[in-house]
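Reviewers of the previous submission asked for a worked example of the structure-prediction workflow described in the proposal, so we include one complete record here. The input consisted solely of the amino acid sequence. No template or homolog information was supplied to the procedure at any stage.
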Amino acid sequence: SFITSVSRGKDRRSGLILTIPLCTEQTSMEELSSTLDYLLGIPSDKCKARGFTVIVDGRKSQWNIVKTVVLMLQNVIPAEVSLVCVVKPDEFWDKKVTHFCFWKEKDRLGFEVILVSANKLTRYIEPCQLTDEFGGSLVYDHMDWVNKRLVFEKFTKESTSLLDELVVINESEKSNQLDKERPPDCNFLPSFDPETVLQTGHELLSELQQRRFNGSEGGGGAWSPMDDELLAQPQVMKLLDSLREQYTKYQEVCRQRSKRSQLEEIQTKVMQVVNWLEGPGTEQLRTQWGIGDSIRASQALQQKHEEIESQHSEWFAVYVELNQQIAALLSAGDEEDLVELKGLQQQLSDVCYRQASQLESRQNVLQSAHEFHSTAQDLSQQLDGLLGMLCADVAPADGAAIQQTLKHLEEKLKSVGTLTLAGLREKGQVLMDQMSNQTSWSYGKDVPIENKENIDHIQGVMEDMQLRKQRCEDMVDVRRLKMLQMVQLFKCEEDASQAVEWLGELLDALLKTHIRLGDDSLETKVLLEKHKKFVDVAQSTYDYGRQLLQATVVLCQSLRCTTRSSGDTLPRLNRVWKQFTVTSEERVHRLEMACSFHTAAEKVDQGNLSAEVEQETYEEVEMVGKALLDRLTVPVIFPDGSEQYFGSPGDMASSAEHIRDKMKLG
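From that input alone, the workflow returned the following C-alpha cells.
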C-alpha cells in the first residue's frame, strides 16, 4: 500500500509537489489512479496550470513498479506534470536503468523524468519545501491533513445536501402559503441536524483560519498554507452563509409549522369540545325533560342530572385550558392568525356558555320541581288530616267544646287554603314558566312533547288539590252547620232546664209569699189582679220551656242524634206546671172567697140595710167566714198526692185571726 499526498511544499516554479511513496508490496495501479484523480481534483485550475512536480519515492520498491507508475502518470496527468523525480536507492538500480532511458522518452511522455538520490533532491527543490524524509525542513503531517480533509469533505457533503433540502422545504412552505388549499407536507424534515452541521462548519473554519494566521502547531520553520486550504476557507464561509440564510428561513418555517400545528391541535380540541357539547352533551339534556311525579322521583332525576354535570365538568375543564392557550396565542400571535383564533375562541365560548346555561336552567327546573312536589305532599297530608277530622264523629261534652272544635277546624282550613295551596300555585307557576323557557334548548328543533305533559301534570296536581280543598270546605260548612245545631241543641236544653227552675221558683214564691187575703174587698181585688199577672208570667215560662223542648226534638232529628232526647226535663216541666196550676187555682179560690167575705162584711158595717136583708147578709158573712177559715186549714194537694201549705203556720194563724175579728165586728 502507499500514501499519496500533496504536501504544502512548492517547486521552483511555484508548482505543487506531489509525493508518491512506493513500498515493497504489490501496488494497485487502479487504486493509485483513483487516488491521483482525487488529489488532482483538489487544487484550483490556476494552481494546476503552474504544473506539478511529482516525487516518486522508489527507495523501498522495485524498478518495474516505479516504471509502471511513471508510465501511468502519462495517462493520468500528463498535462499537469512538469517534472517527475524518481528517488532511487543508493545502489541496486544502475544496471537496470540502462534498459529504459526516461530522458529519451520525454517527448512521448510529456514530462521530464529524472533519477535522483534522496540527498541530491535539493538540486531540484528547495529544502524548505521538502519534508524531513527527503532531507528538507518542511513540517507536514499527512494524517492530520487527511483528517482535516475528511472533515472538510464531510461538512461540504452534509452542508450541500442539507442546503438543498432546506431550499426545497422553504420553497415548499412558500408555495403552501400561496396555495392555502394545498395540504402542507409537515413530515418533510432535513436529513442532518442543521445545528450540528453549522457547528462543524464553524469549527472547521476556525481551524482553517488559525492554521493560516498562526502557522503550524508543531512550529519549526516558515510555513505557508496549502492551496486547498486557501480554497477551502471561502468555500466553507460561503456554505456557512448560505446555510445560515436557509436555516434562518427554515427556523421560520419550523416556527410557522409549530404555530400551525399548535393552531390545528387547538382547533381539533375545540371541535372535540364543541362536537361533544352539541352532540352527546346536548342529547343528554334533551332526553332529560321529566320532572317526576313525587319527591323521590324528582330526587332521582336530580341525581341523574348531577352525573350529567360531572361529565360536562370534564369538558369545561378542557375549555378553560384551551381558552388560556388561545389567550396566550392571541397575545403573541401574528396578525393573520388573530381572526381565526378569535373565531375559535368565540365559537368555544358560545357553545360552552350556552351549555352551562342549559345545565343551570335544568338544575333550576329540577329544584323547582322538588319544591313543588314537596309542597304538594305537605298539602296532601294536611288535607288528609283535615278530612280525617271531618270524618270523625263529633261527641263534645258541651257547647264550649263544640265552639273550640269549630274554631280549630276553621283555622286548619284557612291554613290549607291561604298558605299551602297558595304556595303550591306559586311554585307551580314558577315551574311552568321555567319549563316554557326551555324551548331555546332545542337549537331550532321542535320542543319534545314531554314539556306539555309535564305542564299538564303540574296543572292536574294543582286542580286536584283545589278540588280536594273545595270538598273539605264543603264538608267544613256541613260540619259547621251541624256544630251550630249542636250548640243550639245544648242551648235549648240548657234554657229548658232554666225554664223548669224558673217555674219552680214561681211555684215556691206562690206558696211562700202569696199568702195575704187583703183587709177589705178592694185590696183583695187588687191581689186577684196581681195574681192573674203572676200566672201569666208562669204561663209564659211554661210555654217557653215547651217550645225549647220541641226545638230540641227537631234538632235531634236533624242531627240524627237518636241517643239524645229531652230526658226528664219535659216531665219535670209538666210536673211543676201542674203543681203551679193546682196551687194557682187554690189561691184564686181563696181570694175570691175573701172578696165575698169582705163585701158581705162591708154591707153589714154600712148599717142602712133592712133588718131582713141585714140578717141575710150577716148570715152570709158567718157562712163565708167559716168556709174561708176552714179553707185556710186545708193544704194544697198536688196531682202526685203530695201536700203543701201556703206560708207558715204563723202566717195562716194571722190571716185566720183577722177573719175572726171581722166576723165578730159584724
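Residues 215-225, 441-447 have pLDDT under 50 and may be disordered. We consider this example representative of the routine output the project will generate in years two and three.
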